[in-house]
Amino acid sequence: QVQLVESGGGLVQAGGSLRLSCAASRSIFSFLAMGWYRQAPGKQRELVAEITSGARTTYADSVKGRFTIFRDSAKNAVSLQMNSLKPEDSAVYYCRGTAPIRENQNPYWGQGTQVTVSS
Predict the structure, then answer these.
(1) What is the DSSP secondary structure assignment for residue 1, as one 8-state letter?
(2) Spatial contact of 14 and 118, defined as CB atoms under 8 Å apart
(3) pLDDT tens figures, 6-62
(4) Are 2 and 24 in contact (CB under 8 A)?
(5) What string of DSSP letters covers 85-114?
(6) Which of 30, 40, 45, 49 could bridge across to 69 with cysteines, CB 3.0–4.6 Å?
(7) Number of CB atoms found within 10 A of residue 15's CB
(8) What does each C-alpha distance from 14 to 30, 47, 64, 78 come to in angstroms?
């Protein structure tokens, strides 16, 4: 069973920074893609950032220029550096790993980590 464990959430003031980390129980390079999603109360879960096995990155328009997704080989983790945080970034952030095609692209999710940005 694949496990993804997020860490790094917390409370920060607007304009501050946080770094989220997602540690995987198997090589992060074995996934077709890994990404960060978030879900605020009363809203649907949305993609924040994603990085593919080929290192192509995608960002939500709302976070472009502020957030950076990257792979940390030494920690076997995918991290999300979040700068210039805004109150509207407050949400539970989830890590997702997409299995390769030979594994039917099964999605794996972490348990989530809370990010709260105060104004």
Answers:
(1) -
(2) yes
(3) 999 999 999 999 999 999 999 999 999 999 999 999 999 999 999 999 999 999 999
(4) yes
(5) --GGG-EEEEEEEEPPGGGTT-EEE---EE
(6) 49
(7) 11
(8) 36, 21, 17, 24
